[in-house]
Amino acid sequence: MLEKKAFKETLDTVLRGHLTLSHPIFLELLDPKRANIELMRKVALQGYQLTKNFLGYIEHLHFHCPLPKFKRALLINMYEEETGRLSGTANHVVLMQNFIAALGISDAERDAAEPLMATRALVDYRWAAVKDPMAYHVGAAAVMIASEGQNLETKAGEARHELLAKAYGLDSFDLQFFSVHQQEDIGHVEQGLNLVTELCVTSVMQNEALDAVDRTCELFHAMYENMYRAFCLEATA
Predict the structure, then answer these.
(1) What is the pLDDT of residues 211-226, one digit of tens each?
(2) Is the pTM above the cut of 0.70?
(3) CB-based contact 202:1 (threshold 8 Å)
(4) How high is the pLDDT of residue 235?
(5) Residues with Cβ < 8 Å from 103, sequence gap 6 or more?
(6) Which domain, by its residues, includes 40?
(7) Residues with Cβ < 8 Å from 62, sequence gap 6 or more?
(8) What is the rounded distance in angstroms from the CA atom of residue 143 to the CA atom of residue 35?
(9) CATH of the domain at 11
(10) Of all helices (H) and strands (E), which one includes residue 184?
């Protein structure tokens, strides 16, 4: 079994070993010279499938959390997700809806969108993880580390909202979903790392948590690969 500091560092290393912004789909999405608004709309609608479910994950983690100080932190996370008051914005689903509307997608089209197979797999994996109190450390690792950690990545020193602004001419209001998460999730990931480190008191639990981070990151990559094949490769076949 790893001592706590080494285990926390290993969790962080596994997270940062998965660089989704290097996937070819982001060359099409984020390079101003190649910006593809139709592709961006399709990708945004898949991202919306994740956003709609995220508060539910946090609610389950809060309800089942066995450590009081982390339970309070999760309550604060839930409050921000639901209200946006801590960031001075709005409900985080609404923030994503604002971004989707800025891309020219109607509410009806947004609400009718269905997840691709890999998007559904990511959604379902995390639901299964957070609903099992006996595997709480797995759910916490999947959501608080691997999922919230996706928003920390930058490309050439620029965050997603900065790259999207350059590519599509969107303003700060349109991109609040990304700018808020890029800032807040630094703290959320740190909370997740500390929580999972405290929870995992055996080598088996540590390995399960590490596997959950790795698996969740792989599912994110698979989601982008599914979109790339469905929206880019098939379109040119």
Answers:
(1) 999 999 999 999 999 9
(2) yes
(3) yes
(4) 61
(5) 37, 40, 41, 44, 168
(6) 4-236
(7) 71, 74, 75, 77, 78
(8) 30
(9) 1.20.910.10
(10) helix 176-199
